[in-house]
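All the exercises in this workshop are built on plain-text protein records. Instead of coordinates, the fold is spelled out as a row of discrete tokens. Once this layout is familiar, the rest of the handout is easier to follow. The record below serves as our worked example for the rest of this section.
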Amino acid sequence: MLTQTADYALRALIHLAHSEEDGYHQTGDLAEALHIPTNYLGKILQQLGHKLLVESQRGMNGGFRLARLPEQIRFYDVMAALDLVPVDPECPLTTGGRQIELCTIHRRFAAMTAKYITFLKETTLQDVLQQHSFPATCPGPEHLPAETATYPCTKFPPSIRLSVLSS
């Protein structure tokens, strides 16, 4: 249910939150680490900056960093900053611009949308920064050799290994 823009935004924010240093991170460095096109990421970060989720600084030591603590950044805030909060579609059962009643599809979609919005409002960056969370800079399970069940991630101490669950 995430658009590519939302995915990139969340990955960048998680990367910034995982960072051990408080300084600014240049867009090019973030883009390279996250395998995201630099210009696209720059536009996303600017949008997040307009909504005060990240702050930016120009110049040689400039870049982007979180403007709030991870527990203060809800996924909903990120989606709203990018104009990606889902809305209920118009019901196809309308007559003369007036809706007769909610169709079955619309009712089910509205219920699912409400649950999704609740998830976005209840989930913060801090929630995904737990020690066993999947860091934004680690390759996902789709990049693992078939015989690999776990793999090391450089963002955590060597004793921690991430497991890949098969479906």
The first strand starts at residue 54 and ends at 57. The mean pLDDT is 77. Residues 7 and 40 are 12 Å apart (CA to CA).
